[in-house]
Hints:
By secondary structure, the chain is mostly helical. It has helices at residues 3-12, 19-31, 39-75, 80-84, 91-101, 111-118, 141-157, 159-171, 175-196, 202-205, 207-214; strands at residues 123-127, 130-134.
Amino acid sequence: MSTTRIAAALRRGGRQRGIEDLAAELQQALRRPQLRQPAVVEEAMGIQALALLATLNVECANVDQLAEAASEAFRQHPDHAIMTSFPGLADVTGARILAEIGDDRARFADARALKAYAGAAPVTRASGRSISITHRKVKNNRLAAAGYLWAFVAATHAEPARHHYQRRRDHGDRHPAALRNLFNRLLGCLHHCLATGQSYDPEKAFPGSYCLVTAPAAA
């Protein structure tokens, strides 16, 4: 197979970056001498591989169908417009967040309770003169996983959120800790917006970061 055909197959499979380098690497791997099995065994292994790929295709189709059904139901929810106004919250991720936090306004007494439930708020332990601050291990793991994706997309595509994330990295946080801190901020804003019926406003959510991002460059 030529690198052109391999690259075309990678693009059909959804690959978007590093296609040419990966195509060349795959071509070299395919042309490298390999240990062989008897012809009958190789044919059987090929049929088995095709059967596994067919199963995988069915599962991917089921995932797409489930995502479409969840998105359709989420778009009919009265909180859809508020939640999707946040950066990083589209139909699928927004539906996951809403499914985990629920739409009962009295479920969480305040934003702090929601953050603790999601594992976004740190745990402070004091013993004598020592004080330790660690991440929360007892949490809703499904909500924490969705929040990680939410914060990652927001930090990638929204400048105020990206600036907040980078400021935490410069402060010394590792990547997971910085994303968790960003999720903590976004979750608090979401609780406030849902409680008051407001849409997301980056100037209010990240006042310092928003001013730095939108300030005109010095002459």
